Amino acid sequence: MASTSQMLPQHLKQIRVLMLNDKENLERTLFRLEQGFELQFRLGPSLQGRRVMVHTNYPLEGQPFDRNNFRVLAWNYPTGREDDSDKFCCLDLQIAGSYQYYFGYGDIECSGRGYIVVDPVLRVGGDNHVLPLDCITIQTYLSKCYNMIHFTPLQTLGESRSCYSLADQLTFNPEFSPEGESYNWEDVGALVEKVRTEWNMLCITDVVYNHTAANSVWIKEHPECGYNLVNSPHLRPAWVLDRAILHLTTRVAEGRYKSKGLPADITNESHLNALRRVLWEDVYPEIKLWEFFQIKVDSSVEQFRTLLQKGTEPDRSKTGGKKGLKIIQDPHYCRYGNTVDMDSALETFVPHSSSPQHIEDCCGWLRQKLNELNEEQHHIIHQHQEQASAANCIVGNIVYERLADHGPKLGPVNRKNPLVTRYFTFPYQDMTLEQELQLLDQPDKTCNFLAYNGWVMGDDPLRNFAEPGSNVYLRRELICWGDSVKLRYGKEPEDCPYLWAHMRKYTEITAKYFHGVRLDNCHSTPLHVAEFMLDVARTLCPNLYVVAELFTGSEEMDNIFATKLGITSLIREAMSAGDSHEEGRLVYRYGGEPVGAFVQPSLRPLMPSIAHAMFLDVTHDNECPIQSGIVAGKLALNKLHQELAAQGFIQVYVDQVDADIVAVTRHCPSTHQSVVSVCRTAFWNPKTHQYGTNVPPMFIPGKIEEVILEARTVERNAGSYTRDDKYINGMLEYTVEIKEHIPLQESTLVKQAGVTSKGRSEFVQEITFQKLTPGSVIAFRVSLDPKAQRLVGVLRYYLSQFSPKYRRGSVAEENSPDALQNPLAQLMSTLTLADLNVLLFRCNSEEQEDGGGCYSIPGWETLKYAGLQGLMSVLADIRPNNDLGHPLCANLRQGDWLIDYVSNRLINREGPLAQVGQWLAAMFTYLKHIPRYLIPCYFDAILVSTYTTALDATLKLMSSFIQNGSSFVRHLALGSVQMCGVGRFPALPPLSTNIEGVPYRLSPITGQKEQCCVSLAAGSLATNEQPLYEVIQEALQRHLEGISFSERNAGSKIDMNMRDEGFNVLAKVDPATGFVSGGNRFNCGTWMDKMGESERARNKGMPATPRALLCVPGKEVFISYSQWNQQLHHSFEAAFWVSGIPNDPNEKHPDLVHKTGIYKDSYGASSSWCDYQLRPNFTIAMVVAPELFTAERAWKALEVAENKLLGPLGMKTLDPDDMVYCGVYDNALDNDNYNLAKGFNYHQGPVSVTQLVSEQTKTALWMSPWKGLPELTNENGQYCPFSCETQAWSLATVLEVLYDL
Question: Where is the Glycogen debranching enzyme glucanotransferase domain (predicted)?
């Protein structure tokens, strides 16, 4: 059976495009997609032209998912040809989860990688209808105002009775079974299914992978599953410290330190100071932790002495001949267990001779060094002990637990309430510290000393704080959970088979009976473990809902967990906000897209996502200050939440009214209904905090249909609060007054409502409040004004001809305006390419010919074009990010100037263009009468529809090569429409009456036939017209005989900077070679020339790249074309190839050769060094006359050019190794530098785009606001402000190559 997405029409199918770029790692970027979406991978400019292979572990249809099983995706070629421009490989996403991709080319296996996360589809009810993620309302206990229940773990609990300290992960807690009953997991599954089908509610539960209860039977039988002193000997020093502190607890409780100022009841700072003294004077000196990291100096020196006496040499395969003493940490962490790497010692300490004295001297040097190293270790341990004693460790814990007002006030120290929580289990009878330390040599005992779990404030969540390299336990930085043992998985199941198998069964039970999981302690759970377990869970429950609460402090770090684990929602807690501003920020950040957001195309780039938020008022970890009396309020809010999400209220606006009041608007972009909730927060106790009495009025645009709900938290006489030991009973003295679905007039919180007009059909209601006390909320249902609602519906009706996404909320109009009677595509079909030039393009100077100009956005800049492309280039940057704060959007909201400009410039023209302008004007008539905040998105929708229709009409007027070509070819072809238009004041002269049968154009001013590009090629501007072949013959003959003249009208009118000599032309063919030679050093003789302009730098009138060639005098020559051709073939490589061979007979100036394997830029220049400059001109000759070149030499020269001249968009005009190279062109610079002033280096390094068809040109073309390719760039493809932004030559040469290919 075909998938849902495969049956969708192409324009409805949601397609996201992920552009792949070389060396781009996106593992910390979250990409969220929905089931049914198509994901396309396309090549960015850095990868085009390479044989890229894309790998993914997303499974083939019908195959199980295996995280380590990657397959190669096949490329699709839409044009039927292997063109990198449009080729893509794709995934049809039908399975929820986290999937990885990577790509490479050639010998590079992985050049970039990333993850995609496919959201699950949740279903409830007997009809299995979909529950959207945004509809979820969750509660940790059962209540019918929710659609998801979060069960804390239902397994057998440990002795602490914490829901998250499980004694047995596989058994159902027997305490849930009444006497005489014995419920099991099947009973739980039946209940969960009943809740789903009958109550439309889903059930999720926690999975706890990071620890198990200390009294778990299985952890005692399999101590290898925890971190003990056998499998983790680096914890031995921390265990010694832990036992010493426990014994200190006993002595303090017995009053032994009372004389030192440390009583059992620690109540003030002096007691804490006494504790610090006891730690430093009694505890630390007794346990000597530094000895675990030191060397036994005497035995090490003796071993070294023996080696020296034997004449032992160091193993240089290990030392590499480098000096430096290496110390080997004892893997068992015994006292003085560290050893010396004797090879490094022998390499470092070398005696002057083998005499006993010299050997003894050398041993003395080693002893001194070892003593220094031992002292360093002593200092390091001293620092660790300082941290352990610090305010946030031992002493800090005591302050919180015994002194702080917000702490538990544990009272005197005793065994039940020790100084600090123990870090390790100790399953043996009491004994002295000395006896306990002797157990370190008994592995059968130390394997049972297991490290407790906990969390480390500010730690790296990707680091396992119990692994080697971490000193968390030694420095007492762990906030310890003394009821739970941290589990040690290792890197793979083989490292701890029992633990992986046990937790796999636990996962399978959970996934079999629940719809989702909450990953407890997710930020401390090893990622590879969570990945494995969730893969197991998704095999049983493909649409598994995964939620987690992360405490990483960074969205980027959150993304690592979200992408690798496929987390569906991250918990965000309202009570974590410190004030209303932070609360509003959380809503704005995670609530949805902004009100008035742009309509996005179905096919669009895949943009980074924000992790979906499950926004809770309070999590189960924290106690809600008010519980009783507010269930009715929760019920109303949850119903509203579900309704808004189900009906598409996906847009959000947050208004911080004042310090305590926040207004949140939820908006539906298709019906344009809104719900505005005004909340007066109560972050401070009203009994102790003075709240303001003046509540500012609210201005709500539109028509208020009803008050959905209003609620106030009020105090009542219900006695003082008494905590219930069995139940969360809340503060009974508070309750909620609530009204639902009432007219505005019946509101208790609204004092007065008035209607004001803000513009055409945009009405605003001013609301004055009363009794909006702290802890109050009122929610209004708001519609557009009826007239505006009808007009936006009509606008959507006419837009639906372009996309069915506008059908919802559309309203057909009985009497359509004449301008809208015909579809826009029909109007566009009558346009010519010249008309389309006006519609789409025309720069400022072109538009000024008609008395207009491009539109200038106040406070920003002038659009590049007067036509649609000018706006589309700007909107293309605004739309994907919904940048509604852009000056263009502000201009649209403020007035109709731009709207009128777009239509009026077309209406003022005759014919089909005027009809298109009238169509736009008619659409804009509706647009002008909707609320201003909606105008940017609908203006964009109208323009996108018009623009895409115009592009379709343009392509239909072009050749099959363009119509069937890639998107790159079509973009290039648009350059012809961009560059070719009808001007009011053309520069071309009238067409000669002597020329017949050639194309022409009629002057709109005089009505006469005028020359155009084709007629120029067919005839001549001279008065004595000749056929083209005669012109060619005469030109060649004249050059062969020699020409010498001064240009007509020579002087400043032609070139204001050229000297008189520069206008003199002298050229002749050298009879010995057949090459044309001539010119002088003041000529600008080729395209690669720049006339100097700076008087200050004294380069005025001097060409930067002169082409003056020594002119050989000769007599009148008669030669056939074939003879001339043979002569050129014979002479070319001998004259131009720079071989680098010593004494090459063809090389006249070997002293000037600085690059070999190249072709000279010229031959016989008056300045001989110019011949040897490496420039890209020879590549043009290769294209025009490849027969002149030897293939082997040509490839070698091209390789040199690629290495030295190739840039991102074209070819450098000069070798970077050349002494006059400068890659930055600045025509405004005027200084004393001869080579740079006034842009003298125009062809001395900047990159010429016309020289190369580069893959990067595609990106440059698509990203250009001009939709063209520039004349040149500065070095390394950097933008050059003095370059022509879009050049016909640049576009045409690229298009020509693609056509030839």
Answer: 139-545
Distance CA 1290, CA 1249 (A): 6
- For 922, the enclosing helix (H) or strand (E) is helix 912-927
pLDDT given at position 3: 36
Burial environment of residue 399 by CB neighbours within 10 A (0 to 12, 13 to 18, 19 or more): middle
Distances in whole angstroms, Cα of residue 87 to Cα of each of 52, 81, 83, 960: 11, 9, 6, 20
Map residue 728 onto helix, strand or coil.
coil
Q: Give the chain's residues under pLDDT 50.
A: 1-10, 142-144, 628, 1013-1024, 1114
Q: Is 171 strand, coil or helix?
A: strand
- Between β-strands 202-207 and 516-519, what pairing exists: parallel, antiparallel or unpaired? parallel
Total length of the chain: 1301
H helix runs in 465-577, sequence order: 497-513, 527-540, 555-565
- Indicate the residue type of 361: D
Cα separation, 358 vs 352, whole angstroms: 6
Give the integer Cα–Cα distance in Å for 1045 and 1066: 7
Q: What angle do CA 1060, 1061, 1063 make, to 5 degrees?
A: 75
The span from the CA of 850 to the CA of 842, in Å, is 11
CB-CB contact of 485 with 219 (8 Å): yes
**Residue 116, by phi and psi: left (phi above 0), alpha (psi -120 to 50) or beta?**
beta
Find out whether 389 and 282 touch, Cβ atoms under 8 Å.
no
Determine which helix (DSSP H) or strand (DSSP E) holds 758, and give its type and residue range: strand 750-759
pLDDT reported for residue 1003 = 67
Structure-block tokens of residue 239: 């265990």
Q: Is 61 left (phi over 0), alpha (psi -120 to 50) or beta?
A: beta
Question: Active-site positions?
Answer: 520, 523, 621
The span from the CA of 563 to the CA of 611, in Å, is 9
Q: Which of 1068, 1088, 1064 is nearest to 1077 (CA)?
A: 1068
Q: How far is CA 213 from CA 165, 179, 493, in A?
A: 5, 26, 21
Q: What is the pLDDT of residue 554?
A: 84
CA-based R_g, the chain, Å = 41
